[in-house]
Design goal:
It contains 10 helices and no strands. The protein is mainly alpha-helical. α8 runs antiparallel to α9. The chain starts with a helix and ends with a helix.
């Protein structure tokens, strides 16, 4: 995030062209790195050759109430990502400096990293589901409070961005683990495991 403006300014005086080149550079670097996971990867688990029918998979989704709630929560949570898309406008028109958008994202990501690191300890203390629920409630209260507090103080804005990042960490971790739990639930209900169907809904 911090490197993008530096690269853009170094490449071209035109902001649009500069950021396009910066994005292309990141894409060229990221694509091969992401593909590394596919090389020399071997399956060590014996997979049952019998494939379930579409009807069986659909039934597994219908009886998997926990998975339905997780997906609904993920969809609602994804709407909050729209906040990131309006950060440049918020920084320019509310804070008076469009360059603060990058700083806000960096602060929020730093909080997210710390939140992810604290998740195992917090989970042992509260439990998985209560942690996810109460951090979501805390984020909602914080954002409502931010609306009334305002953004006259840059320090308060940065602090709120950091705390929001910290509170988002547990959900990012437990989204996958709760989907795994829902697969176990369906196995108890139906006697069959449908990992692929369940995890396909994550995206």
């Amino acid at each position: 995030i911090a490197a993008a403006p530096v690269i853009a300014n170094a490449v071209s005086e035109d902001e649009g062209t500069g950021y396009f080149v910066a994005a292309a550079i990141f894409a060229v670097i990221a694509a091969p790195v992401m593909m590394l996971a596919g090389f020399n990867t071997r399956e060590h688990v014996q997979v049952d050759e019998e494939r379930p029918s579409v009807g069986e998979m659909w039934h597994a989704l219908k009886v998997n109430r926990p998975l339905q709630l997780i997906v609904a929560s993920n969809i609602l949570g994804a709407m909050s990502l729209g906040m990131a898309s309006v950060l440049p406008f918020f920084a320019e028109y509310s804070l008076g400096d469009d360059e603060l958008a990058a700083a806000l994202i960096v602060v929020m990501l730093l909080g997210l990293i710390i939140g992810i690191g604290l998740t195992p300890m917090a989970t042992r203390w509260m439990g998985k589901i209560p942690l996810v629920v109460w951090t979501a409630v805390a984020r909602a209260v914080l954002l409502i409070g931010f609306f009334f507090i305002g953004w006259d103080s840059l320090a308060i804005v940065m602090l709120i961005a950091f705390v929001l990042g910290v509170l988002s960490g547990s959900f990012q971790v437990h989204l996958s683990t709760m989907i795994g739990d829902s697969v176990d639930y369906v196995e108890l209900e139906t006697g069959s495991r449908y990992e692929g169907v369940a995890f396909s809904l994550q995206t």
